[in-house]
Design a protein that fits this description.
The chain is built from 3 helices and no strands. It is mainly α. It starts with a helix and ends with a helix.
Length: about 60
């Protein structure tokens, strides 16, 4: 049992570079999901209302 706890202690260290990479990946993932859903929500409502991008530019 003592050997098992030593092995877990070795792999539980994260240096600052690893932590910042994890945070950067999380922020990038949230931004990507936001852009993805924003596009699909706009396309969904455009189909419902019958509008297209060309209709928005015309006055």
């Amino acid at each position: 049992m003592a050997n098992f706890s030593v092995i877990l202690g070795i792999f539980s260290y994260l240096d600052p570079g690893t932590g910042s990479a994890i945070i950067q990946a999380l922020i990038g993932g949230v931004a990507a999901v936001g852009f993805f859903f924003r596009h699909h929500v706009r396309a969904f409502f455009a189909k419902l209302t019958g509008k297209s991008k060309k209709d928005d530019n015309e006055d």
